[in-house]
Structure formats: C-alpha cells, structure tokens
Known about the structure:
The complex is a heterodimer of chains A (473) and B (471). Chain A has 473 residues and is of the alpha/beta class. Chain A has helices spanning 30-44, 78-88, 100-106, 108-117, 165-170, 186-204, 219-222, 226-240, 264-270, 306-319, 366-372, 406-412, 419-431, 436-446, 454-469; strands at 50-54, 69-72, 93-99, 122-127, 177-182, 210-215, 244-248, 293-301, 323-329, 338-346, 360-363, 381-385, 400-404. The mean pLDDT of chain B is 93.
Amino acid sequence: MSVFYENFERHSGGLGLKAHATHYCPGCGHGLVHKYLAEAIEELGIQDRTVAISPVGCSVFLYYYFDVGNSQAAHGRAPAVAIGHKLANPDSIVVSYQGDGDLASIGLAEIVSTAQLGIPITVIFVNNAIYGMTGGQMAPTTLMGQKSATSPYGRTAAMGLPMKMAELIAGLDGPVYVERVALYDAKQRIKAQKAITKAMKLQVENRGFAFVEVLAECPTHLGMTPEETEHWVKESMLPVFPLGVKKDVVVEPHGAVPAPSFDAERLVGLVGASAEKPPRFMKGFPEHLGGKDVALKLAGSGGDGAQTAAMLIARAAISEGFDATHIPSYGPESRGGTSYADVHVAEDEVLSPASPHPRILVAFNAPSLAKFAPDVVPGGTIVYDSSVIHDVPKVAEGVRLVGVPLTEIAVDLGKAMVKNVVALGALCAATGLFPEETFKTALRQALKDKCALIPLNEEAFAWGVKSVTAPGN
Amino acid sequence: MASPAPVRERPKPFLLDEFCKGCGRCIEACAKNCIEVGHEINPLTGLVPVVLNLDHCNACGLCMDACPEPYGLRPEAKPKASEDFELQDPAKLFGERASQRPKPVAIPPEIVPLPKTEPLVLKGNYAAAVGALLAGCRHVYGYPITPSTEGAELMAKLQPKLDGVFLQAVSEVATVNMMYGCGGAGLPCMTFTSSPGFSLMLEGISYMIGSEVPGVFVNVMRGGPGLGNIAPEQADVKLACRGLGHGNTHAITLAASTPQEMLDLARLSFELSFKYRNPVILLADGYLGQMTGKVVLPETMVKPGLPEWAVFGDAAHRGNLISSIYLDEKDLENFNVHLNEKYARMQAAEQRADLFLCDDAEVLVVSIGTPARMAKGAVEALRLQGVKAGLFRPVSVWPFPIDALKPLLPKARRIVVVEASAGQLEDELRLALSHAGLAVPKIESVRHMGGVLPQTGEVVKAVLSREEVTA
C-alpha cells in the first residue's frame, strides 16, 4: 500500500527491520488503525492532499509511516494545529490522530472547541483506557476499578468517572459524524475500517467535522496477551463505551473558500487610506501656545466624549501637516468611570506623548478639574463645563479659566452627546490652536459615514465658539 | 453475448518472519486454523513469529485484516518468473513503488506596489494590524486581551473582506497552536496578545522554534505579575528575550515606540520570521497599543509565496515534516547547534537601534517603547539646558544592538536606563556589554512599574541630579 512509506526512513534511519516494522508493541491497536487510515487515504485518492497531525503519545511517530504531509503537535493541541493547516489550505485533508491522554485530558478544550467549530477535519481518537507512552498511568478513559501506575489500587469515584468522548462530541452541534468502533474481532475491524473511511470521505466532500473513537488494545500496559486484551476490550470496555454511530447528520457541503485577496487598492480602501489631500487652513504652527509642541489633556467620565474630542484634535493636527498623538487612559471600570486623554500637537515630531503638565485642559466634570487644573502650566488655558462644575480650584498664575455651560448648550441642541464638540468650539476660540475650519473639516471627515449628524455637530461647535467670543466672556 | 464474470483471484497470506512480532491477532481471525503460535525465536528480531500452514487456507483474508503491521501479513505476491523466490530482495518482493511527487520548489513572495496615500491617523494596535495586512498576513488567530484587543478587532473586521481568516480561539494555548499549524503550512500568521496571554503561548512558541515555524506575536505588555492591571508595563522583556518556553530558544524581539513603528515593525517581523523560519516577537506596551498617531503607509505590500519546506497539503510538499522531536541525543544536540548558528546569524545581521543625538552624547539614555518617547523629550530638554544627552533606543531588544552602542561608549560618561520594569532592559544591556567583552560602566536607572510610566520631567531630573550644567 503506497500510503505507507516503502522504507520507514524516519524510524531510526530506516535501517534493518525498523524500515518495515512499526515501533508499536505486539498486539497494539495503533497498527490496525494506521492501516485503515492508510487504506482510506488510498481509496479516496487523497494522498497528495492529506496532512496528518500526530499527537503526543505512542502515535507521536505517525510521521514515520505515512507518506503524506506530516505535522507533529504539542500534547493535546493537535485539533488546534489541524485548524491552522485546514484554514491555511482549505483544499487539504487534515487528520488529527490522538490518544486518550492527549485528546480526553490535556487537550479537552481544543477537541471540544474544534468539534463545535465544525470545519471539515477528521479526528481519529484511539482509546485504550490507559496512558501508553508515559508508562501505563490512569487516563480519563480508565475504567472504574482498573489498576494503573497512578491508580495502583484501582480507579475509584474520587478519581472521577471514565470520560465518554464519543458521546460528549456527539452532543455538540458542530460535528456531522461521530462513531465509536473497536478492533477485537473481524466484524468490528471491518466496521472500524468503514468508519474511518467514512470520516475521511466526509472531509473530502467538505461536509464537516467527523470523529471516530476506536477502542484499542494496549497489551503492554494492561499486562495481558494481545488475545486477552481483545477479550478485555469486549468484556470490560464495551459496557462503559458502547459501540455504534453516535451522530450522523446529512448536511450540504460547505461552499468553496475564496482565495485571500492581495489587491492593493482594496486593502488601501479598507484601512481608510486615501490619496485625497486634506485641505489646510494654517499658515504655520500655533507658536503663540508656547513653542513647537502643545500638550493638552481632556478629562471627564466615560461617555463625556473626551476621547472622541481628543482624537479629533489629533486628526485635525495631522491634516494640517503636523505630528500629533493621543493616548487614552481609562480603567476597566471605565465605561462610566474616569476617562482621560493626553494629546500632543507638535510641529515636527511629538517627542513625549504624555501630558502631565498640559498647556490646555478640557474638564468635563468637577473631579477632573480638581485633579488636573493645578498641573496646567502658566499661560495655559482651562475650558470646563460650568453646567456641572461650580467650584473652581486654585490654578497657576496666568492660567486662563474659561467656564462654558457645555452640557446646557448640548441639551438645548437636543443631544447631550455633543457637549464634547461644544467644548472643541470653546477650545478653538479660547486658545486659537487651529482655525475653526480645521476643526470643522476634521469633524466632517470623522462623520463622513453619518452625514446626518454633521449639521448638529457644526452647530454645537459654533455654539462653543460663540460662548467664548460673545461679549461678556 | 455477455463475457464471463472475471474470476477474482484471492491471494493467500504471505509473511516475512522478520516483520512479525508474534502478537497472534491473526490466529484468532483465521477460521481454518491455519496459523499457530510460534515457538522459535527469530534470530534477527529476537521475537517469535507466528507459523503459517496454508494447506487449508481459503484466502479469506481475515488474517491480513487482523495484522497490525503494515508489512506484516500481506497478500502473497507472485515472484517474477525469471527469478527464484529465494533470490529476491524481500524489500522489492512486492514491487517497486516509484514516488510521483514533484520536488517542492519555493515560491518567492511578490512585492506589490501600493497607491500613494495621505497619512492615516491610527492607534498603535490598529497600525500593527495594518502592518500585518501589508505583510500579506491573511491568517490571524487570537483570544481577546486588553490592551491588545483593538488589533484583533480590526482583523475580525477586515480579514473577511480580504477573504482571509480571523478565528477567535478558545484560549491563548489554542491560538499559538493554530499558528503552529498555519505557519507549518508555510503561510504568514499572527496574533495580538498581552502579558498573561503571552505567558500562555510560550510553550507553543518553543514548539514553533523547535519545528522552525514562522509566526508573529504582537505582545502589548501590561502590568503584572498575575492578573496585575491593564496599564502599560515592560515586564515581558525578559520573557521575550530569555524565556520563550522550554529549551534553547530565541526569537528576534522588536520593540516599537510609535504607531508608525507598530506598522513598520509588524511588517518587518513577518519578513524576518520567514527569513529565519522562526517566530518573531513585537513588543509594545499598553500605552503604545492605545496611542493614536500619524502613520504613513509604505510604498509596497507583500503577497506571500510558499516556502519549499511547508506542509501545505499538496503534492509538491507531501514529503515535508513539521516536528521538533529528536529522540537521539546526538541528533538533538546537532539540531541545537544548528539553532545556535541561526541565533548567531540573527545576532550578526538583525541588530537595530534608533539613535537620537548620540554622536557627542556624554549621557546616554537607553530606553524602548513608550518610555523611550518620554526619554526622547527628556533628551531634548536636557540639550536645551546644555547637557550633552542622547537617546539610544534598541529597536531590536534581542539581538541587543551592541554594535551600535559600542562606538558611543568612549564618550559616554553615564548610561541611564529608563524603563517601565524592575530592570529587565537593563539586564539585556548588561548581558550585551558583558558578552561583547566591554567594561560595564555604572548604570543608573529611572524605573517605574505597575502601569506608572517614567515621565520626561523625572528623566531630566534624574540626569541633572548628577550633572553639572555647563551651558
């Protein structure tokens, strides 16, 4: 059979007997399962497309024997690795081959989530009720009362009950086919071979996730002859792990998967890049604000719109050809909790993006004003919401305090949400950071997908400007 | 007239004694009692093969079905008439099997020109995602973790529109193993994670290194240990540079400090990852992940190829194997020697640093990530005060850019390491100096932890506290 390598070169260099004999113990079930898998691959004509994922455990060396693409996974992770292969090449036929320690214990999360995902992958699960490669310790599938290296007095209820994987997987919505088979007599072997072929065929037909649990013999660690083990599987394992089809649903094949796009225009459009030059309204950097770098802080509660306003300032600055940064700071309690933004606008490059000592502060609530007002540098400006802030803390000399009833204005406009845009208008008028048109362009740009909101926001901005420039302020 | 049905000739079983382990599964399978337990030890194998007596055999084939060995009981092959059976090579007895599969050939990546566009305003996490897209990454796996989530969110939004894959895994453990599968298939893949998630991925990264599988990990570091907080810290420098899971592991570890660099270095990470068949770690911090800034798109993007070593699931790559097992001690030692040679090549060729006013610097501030930006502001402030300060910013933390630092050392009287950790960057610096056989000068530090970042003012203060202002 050509799915097996002619010489097992990966088995100790393929020298001598190891070129043609498996590393499995006499009577081990793996050899039979390998044969059935190889026959299925041959019968379906998929040798070139198959990727076999070998697990950790006795069958870790699956790749010694199978002349297909081979990938060896970490303990328990074969289904996740299988997903990686399958999604990389949806045309490949991916088989995850796992033992009970691998699949039912350490890799339980991976097998359950992969099965539920339902993408066409075939899982062959070899259950021999014991850990083979590690030396015969208790597995999740070890029977009650069964002795093992780590249940030397027999498995008790305190160690948990045997895990019925086929039933567990069949209980999920993801798989299309789940069957438990055995190897102990000719009839069962024929059924096992058919089940494995069917599980592979379902993947070839692109129908979905298939899972075959095989009750297999481990003569070495069960301490029996191969013949006794066959009887043991039949007499002892079957009552706990009943054979048969656990799930078999007929579904339409998944559609063809399109090849990933590497279209440059499409990608550039998706990330929002455009060749259109933003209009510029500034003649030079606003150096009247104390140099080539202006530090701002916007502070309030989550929902006040401090982050959005901060982003608009950064956007506006970058449109004008300057550099800008915005760092939001909000805790996990944020949505409704504190929300601060540090913004820098620099002529060439923002060297230090944090604003511990801002030139401009916008405070949306009293705690924010109390916390940050004392840090505003001399000559700076503070815009605060006079609708909600009544006590103004002491500030450095030369700091201009501009109280604007942000909330009131926004509520009068019919949308409390726009108080941050009112604040931007006030900031614009009070500091001369950018011309009004710069802010308005940034606003229109940000709202280009929500055009209906543009007039309201422009009105809010105008009110902000007016509340600072109107006589009496 | 219908032709007579062909007579199906059923072959009887054939056994080369050497290939029989004597398990006896065939004995029970035979209804005609043709097979018996053997009693003679085969001198070649030390095992006791079964004994066949095919006088009553009706060629039902059940014994062959019961045999667990691929080359155990097989249908008897007719020997060539010209040769005596005994003279034939047993391995050739069942006919030659010519392999049809073509030899895998590497398909190189294509460089695709990008239209010229205006600068974008992007958050660091988004910028890294865009960088990955431009590097040709169409397979992203991940598990959401703050403060890296925006990267995964953008990928979830954009990948389906590019017919790519974003899959939210059940855990970070599953994530890294999906990457192992995808990288093993020879395609670029990546994830966004943050410190506790990165910890969970380390075992998988060790496997990727051991199997020489590429993949890019963007680790937006947060405060630890344990659950810690979601504020910026640089506490995974050691993990990335010295602790990538079990075994002898290293990966090129880059540290971005601006959203622009998040894009550029993400892109570079993919290139390096495939160049060396090794994972690459891109470190950012919670601040940088969240920081928005100006980002200019490059002039080109990459359409990935397919390396010859990939286990892609096609005919050309059928003979390939992705695995990290070397049971033979000597083989494993040789493999580790190979890895070490690769690490040495990385150390020679992939050192990267960004130098700001370093040429005449008497005080070298060494820093990465967001603290490096605070430090850059400090350097500028110090220069205004007449202090010859410079910023030495490793862009590759591993390999540490010692070659760029070396010529600066004679002038530099002082080194001040500014970092958001308890000295992990400083340790890298000290190791690099020591390995280069350079005298380790006195190293001062400005450190914060827990999400508190070193600020420009305190770096200035720390430098000035021991500095005579000359201007």
